[in-house]
Amino acid sequence: xxxxxxxxxxxxxxxxxxxxxxxxxxxxxxxxxxxxxxxxxxxxxxxxxxxxxxxxxxxxxxxxxxxxxxxxxxxxxxxxxxxxxxxxxxxxxxxxxxxxxxxxxxxxxxxxxxxxxxxxxxxxxxxxxxxxxxxxxxxxxxxx
Length: 144
Known about the structure:
The protein is α/β, with parallel strands linked by helices. The chain is 43% helix and 17% strand.
């Protein structure tokens, strides 16, 4: 199976997980999330990650998304995946947002090579989704 694993500070990952379920279908076993909450230590967070990935096998693949490159949720999760022998089957991306995760969830099972698909298709398409939204304001006679 190909899993999408979301990690973050605060409630960002669980909130994004709920938004993805709203758009891509709820109760999906392939989407997992956890977060580093205020006051939680790295060891406690690592235990949450261990519990979350306990059913992932060496044959599975993981697309790991985190809020910040180099942040504690990403680095701690990478360490836990390494301990579990899953790091070689994982692609890690920092700076997650709704378009990148949704695109991955909807396309991951059709990609021949998950890592390459995310590198060459999903990330570039997500960058294009970040842009200013403009609406032209109509001027009324009172504005003149």
